[in-house]
Amino acid sequence: MNAWTRTRTTCPYCGVGCGVLADVETAASGSPAVQIKGDHEHPANFGRLCSKGSALAETLSLDDRLLHPVVDGRQTSWDEALDTVASRFQETIAAHGPEAVAMYVSGQMLTEDYYVANKFMKGFVGTANIDTNSRLCMSSSVAGHKRAFGADTVPGVYEDLELADLVVLVGSNLAWCHPVLYQRLAAAREAHGTKVVVIDPRATATCEIADLHLALEPGTDVALFNGLLAHLQATGRIDDAFVARATNGWEDTIEAAAALSFDEVIAHTGLRRETLACFFELFAGTERAVTVFSQGVNQSSAGTDKVSAIINCHLATGRIGRPGMGPFSVTGQPNAMGGREVGGLANMLAAHMELEDPAHRRIVSQFWGVSSVPDRSGLKAVDLFEAIGEGRIKAVWIMATNPVDSLPDADAVRAALAQCPFVVVSDVTARTDTAELADVLLPSIAWGEKDGTVTNSERRISRQRSFLHPPGETRPDWWQICRVADRMGFAHAFQYIGPHEIFAEHAALTGTENDGTRDLDISALASMLRDSYNALEPLQWPLTETAHEANGRFFADGKFFTPDGRANLVPVRYRAAASSVDREFPMVLNTGRIRDQWHTMTRTAKTPRLLTHIAEPFVEVHPLDAAEYGLEPAGLARITSRSGSVVARVSVSERQRRGSVFVPMHWTDQHASAARVGAVVAANTDPISGQPESKYGAVSIEAFNAAWYGFAVTSIEPPIATYEYAARARAGIGYRLEFAGRAPVLAWGDIAAELLTKPGSVGERQILSYCDEGHGQYRFAAFADGECIGLLFVAREPVPVSRSWAIDQLSARVAPQDRRHLLAGRPSQDVPDQGAIVCACFSVGANEIVRAVVDGGCRTTAEVGQCLGAGTNCGSCRAEIGRLVDEHRFETAV
Ligand code: SF4
């Protein structure tokens, strides 16, 4: 029997930062087997994992991995690649100065990688032109924290969501974006009746546990929270003693908030009077209230003001720093917080210090042994890529991120990189839309191979440990930067023998000349040697005695990190989004995440299981808008803005607001032919944080009137670039392809042969077909060696074939006399169609859940779980199961 080795590590996806147990079969030859479980001892998740975390073991294959350095499209040695990067950076700096080079890094990176990148650029290259994709995620929260608290401090802890009597979720689809935190909240609500308010233009899956849903007009959060603050004052709920003792700016702040009358708040937010009054009274009357906010607040041209409007309500009521209360920013990425700790943003210095503060610059420059560090901010993400496009930045190093897809005005970003004289990309994936534009590709180690630390949304530092050998010639990101630094003459400052030395240096800097003046001080960890670093348990900063007394919360003592120790109430006034709808672009575009995919799908799209829930880019649209624009459910639509367009499957839903559409952020040219929604998002940013307004764009929508629609399952990776619409996803042991076009296709037999042929098969082959040219129907079923190797269906309407059934046919052995049955495109009558998959863990479809409710009498999510198993593993689908139960519980079986 083979031995198994267990490694405690951390999930690499969202900012919840769940602990993971990775069990590796050590005696295996070839690729070792890996099993993933939630870590019951980790205080972020206590054993829970969501669908993405549960599927981590399925993402570890070396398919698509970048395994060797590449220069100008040619595999080469590390020496040549590093020499090229160093010399091109040096030449650029010599000719044009340090401002002509830049790095663009990522909240996926470990704290140690992030620290070294910032030290390299801000300390030694001599520019603050290093920004991160966290700019797109939570930089408005950083700006809001800093101007309120004097530091980028998250006051609360996850336990506050369980201790609160009221949790307000603003712009946060917690059920899909932070699923384990959602599960903790749902369990607390079940146990003691926590009231939950969801503030979101869409009725997302999170509304499943909402007592009240405020479907406000997009972008009007400042009006809403200013209205709340005015209500708190008018009804005598202000904590006057706290405001007088611990804050500045009350008079100006309440004046700004009260500038809008209640009727004007109603007019801006579009909410009903009773709904608004209900929320205001609920908040006013509930001492233990937590307001959770994320991208729906941050990704706005008024993002910083929205954060301030929320924080103002908590400061004015003194609801901060105590159990079960406070404003709570949850980060999207696994190490957005660690990046902030080491100064990952272009306007930050290491260890929560400020570029603009001369004392902070002196501390950091002395610590790093350099004469100076930059005294002004570098270019923030959107500006940075504009500078590349304008030729002001001539060499850029992109690490662990995919800006050609994720940045706004993404076609302009692609064009900028295409003409940039020198582009370096460090990544784990060989084929990305950004990697295609690189002059130098550097192969990085991936999750499972990486070793370092991450910090989650509640300031908890956890080890991400390696349990697999790095494949090929892959290397850590910190190692790559250090070796380039060596070649540029900075070797003396970058001689780390491992991540523990980097972490110790970072920890020491946090304590340098701190004396309690800065929130971040983990210098107690600075003396850690490798063994204690390796054994480090998850721990939450601050590490002081006072913090222990406050169970990890900040501001329990009413002291803040401003010069006078008082928090700043910040007067903010509502202003409309930067884009405005008009006759040409009459709809509001909202973008965001879906439950089972992560960012640009480089990892989550490797596992078929995570593509059973949603396998295609889609646009969610209200039924009345669908009718107005001639959109059919399951048809296709083109969404167009001034900067670009996408084509996506139409999903008609009452959950969408009228006048708005939602398109997910994940699809790239690697997975679909025309679904990069970043190309549609305008490059409008918040003037303080620089965060792009990805939640509000002006677009038009029209039916994409295809002449034909196709659906295929196939054993080979099908091409997508040749079709006007195509979306490819892994499915079962092969792929599924949805495609469509407006130009007639004559040679379907040839396309079937190309799509369905299995290379290498030498035995019996057969392609059966059914063609009805008059009705535009074509069906093909291919077999090799007795197995089904592919199916193709074409029709003039969206193809009504059971996707889950078709995927199950791949590799099925089918007797010759039964093969023609597959051309029907559906199960035989005695095998019911399971419908679209809802529970990815147990492959339970929507039709099966509805049958369990209607025929089986299930009346709760738990009863569906007992009946079908659905929702009993990771729990990410419970919100959708609950919705199906609610929708069908009063239907009677016939
Ligand atoms: Fe990973 Fe899911 Fe936990 Fe987020 S909630 S850290 S994605 S397991």
Verbal overview:
With 894 residues, this protein is of the alpha/beta class. The protein folds into six domains: 3-59, Phosphorylase Kinase, domain 1; 70-135 and 335-549, Rossmann fold, CATH 3.40.50.740; 139-330, Dimethylsulfoxide Reductase, domain 2, CATH 3.40.228; 587-703, Barwin-like endoglucanases (Beta Barrel), CATH 2.40.40.20; 708-824, no CATH class; 837-888, Arc Repressor Mutant, subunit A (Orthogonal Bundle). The chain is 30% helix and 19% strand. It contains 29 helices and 34 strands. A seven-stranded mixed sheet has the order 5-4-16-15-14-6-7, with helices on both faces. Strands 21-25-22-24-23-26 form a six-stranded mixed barrel. It has a six-stranded antiparallel sheet with strand order 28-29-27-32-31-30, with helices on both faces. Helix 3 (111-125) runs parallel beside helix 20, helix 8 (221-234) runs antiparallel to helix 11 (262-269) and helix 27 crosses helix 29 (878-888). The radius of gyration is 27 Å and the shape is globular. The protein starts with a strand and ends in a 6-residue tail after the last helix.
